[in-house]
User: Fold these one by one.
Assistant:
Number 1:
Amino acid sequence: MWHLEPSLTDPDTVYAGVEDAALFKSTDGGVSWSELSALRGHSTGSKWAPGAGGLCLHTILIDPENQDRLYVAISAAGAFRSDDGGTTWKPITKGLHSKYLPDPTAEVGHCVHRIAMHPSRPQTLFMQKHWDVMRSDDRGESWQKISGNLPTDFGFVIDVHAHEPETIFIVPIKSDSEHYPLDGKLQVFRSRTGGNEWQPMTKGLPQKDCYVNVLREAMDVDSLDKCGVYFGTTGGQVYASTDGGESWNAIVRDLPPVVSIEVQTI
Amino acid sequence: MSGVRVLVGTRKGAFILTSDGTRQDWQVSAPQFGGWQFYHLKGSPVDANRIYASQSNDWFGQTMQRSSDGGKTWETVGNKFSTTAFPARTSGTTARRTRGNSSACGISSRP
């Protein structure tokens, strides 16, 4: 079970994304689960193949303006959207390019690592793909590359500032075979222009001898006045910024390897 | 002043980090379900005390936890995830797996 996505309106309703690539829903607080089987039964299903992490359904997004609109991402099937609560699905991969595929622009097979959405602008999606950082402004119908000046555009996490829908955060990772930061320097890259123009955020983060990874579920933001940004590492650190990414502190340093971070503003 | 609760899933337990709105001083909980892997914990946006958690290990498999008090106590809920069998594929994703990893999506990145 890779991802849990509670309903935006009902605490007893929750979606669950599992390996292998199935989506489930519970309406009784997790006591019983039913598969939304049209996803796995999609006509492209026979072409899906697992990424290195397995055939995992790791991202579920609910459109706050229309809660029957759901997005899921699967490594390495790609990304899919439903406009009818999960009854039917369509691949949303136009514009993605994956050089490791026999057909680099195939409808399915892209190793999507994470998709993020700002609730005030649900038509816009940001994606960290295996390689490439992408955005869509039409609910996934088409994607544009926004890697811009990034030193490497491999990575796992991507998230959006709580109050600035064009401010996004990623943690670049060296490559698909070397899952740690470039040059041993842990850097969050922030774009305030919705991509393409990126600035490294380094204050408070180790700038030598750092070889941790930041896994796809391990970044989130709070919604306080000055947006807090949080991420966890496979080295057991949880870093927090209380100034929108300008500076960072480790709020705990020695946990087991961190898999996921979720932040509640209470 | 409002505060922040950070739900942390790790390879060997779940941890809850809490602070007031200044976010300067943090309290770190004891391990919740120490030794178990937590792929994900997430709270309801309409009831912050309702938290769902995905707990697993290699021996016991998948378990689901639910809290109704912000992570102070937990209740084991359902873990029966029955998939639909499709006629074209005898066992759904198993059939896909045997075809190998045509995507060549890097080396191990679990999760």
Number 2:
Amino acid sequence: MSTDQNQIAPNAQPMIDIVGLNKWFGPFHVLRDINLSVAPRERIVICGPSGSGKSTLIRCINRLEEHQQGSIVVDGTELTHDLKNIDAIRREVGMVFQQFNLFPHLSVLENCTLGPIWVRKTPKRDAEKLAMELLERVKIPEQADKYPGQLSGGQQQRVAIARSLCMQPNIMLFDEPTSALDPEMIKEVLDVMVDLAETGMTMIVVTHEMGFAAQVADRVIFMDAGQIVEQNTPDEFFNNPQSDRTKLFLSQIL
Amino acid sequence: MTSSPFFRQPNDMLPERAPPVAMSGIIGWLRANLFSGWLNTGLTLFALYALWLIIPGLLNWAFFDADFAGTDRFACTGTGACWAWFDQRIDQFLYGFYPDEQTWRVNLALFLILPALAPILFDKMPGAKQLRWFSLAFPFVATFLLIGGFGLEEVPTNKFGGFMLNVTVGLAGIVLSLPIGIVLALGRRSKMPIVRTLSVAFIEVFRGVPLITLLFVAAILLPIFLPSSFSLDLVVRVIVVVTAFASAYMAEVIRGGLQAIPRGQYEAAQALGLGYWRMMGLIILPQALKISIPGIVNTFIGLFKDTTLVIVIGLFDVLNIGRTMISNPDWLGLAVETQVFISLFFFVVCFSMSRYSVYLEQRLDTSKH
């Protein structure tokens, strides 16, 4: 295993800087000595078997999970118990969940404008205009007045992406965004994510879609048993894996 | 039979067709719901027979054989009900001992409930936003109208009685117990130990004690405990106790709703940067309250009917007025008639609440295609 896990990161002020991160669920050591630095505009794909801690890792970045050791600095702000810092970071970090987690009692448009209106204090008209632009970008402006329960899974996930983008974040976290979707709908969500990657958004994506990783990732990280086992460019990662654990994983999913 | 390979081109996919007639229409409905089998057919016929036995007798008693006029029960000579008291005593049933020349104030307060409730019950109606200010002011307007002062003749609350007392206590309890119940439910789920302990203690104490006991405490014990300079009106004490009792139930109903909200809703709200109160107010509570509607209305209905328990501390609510009347020699023994009349009143109010909750559930249902 490489001792310098950040050797590939470009030499810029990192967007996310994670040093010596450890986390436990009760006695279970779920994240072990994670060091990860993400440069602005960098696109990272994290993969690994279930239970390897990859979701927990990105949920630590916006404090949906609390870490016990180490430091996480997001865009210059360190995550501590200080609620102000947590709020500031959550404003800058968008997140898309496996189960979409749209608000079922609000229309698609209201889902998108809620954050800007209540957190960013954007006037309602501006928020709606922005929301319509972003719904256009995820290719479902015609569903704006419907409720989430009336949409297909793929449409819901695209609304969830638009909802996050409405907060105009600097970083987007994706937690297995296509794992709950029917095969025919995975592509429409991945297309939106590829578009987003091309705009230069900093992205961390936990996914098993290796085609997506090969197409857009700057770096692929493989995790197992709460630690980073291997990280490399997609090309090297898929064609020339070093760790035996990585080789086993790739042989099973490809 | 052999199966041969088969395919369909997009242009010869099957079109949508209407369901067969036997599935729809009146005949279809009857067949599916009332005569779907031997057992169902038998039950339907039995129910029709029972109705045929009961309804004519009931109508005869209540209307055709009943007496409607007279100044005492001896004017009633028919075999049916005696409604002669109605004309004589209806004012007492409605207003208790409220001064006759002032009863317009009760009527006005009752009438003003309509514009006060309308913008809350039907939030899509035109002008709802402006009217909502009136809804906020209504409790004060109604209190002023009923009690008086500021130029209106003062009416002490011991003159309150009849339906008017039930409605006053019931409405005040309903309006207050919902917000208090929400606060208690949130408190019980709070991570702060003191808030949580206090909420649990409040809920368990008021839920674990019979309402009658609490009413006795309010009527007899509180005046002994409290300094004599601090005297609280009896009706106010009753409202406080009824509210506390209903709030404890309400809190548990709403806690049930809160527990049904998936964790992902909290996480999505947090990920957007919403703080605790906005997350609760905008995302969690609207959904939790929607799920809790049947339980909330259940509690409201229970509270409203429980207002008749004030009889045990000597208040003259409608039940007590009825009891007093039938112990008067003029109207002795008309228990059935008064109970039927009072029951009808409670049924109309409670059934309206129930129907409204059904309407509300349908309106808030966002899952329909």
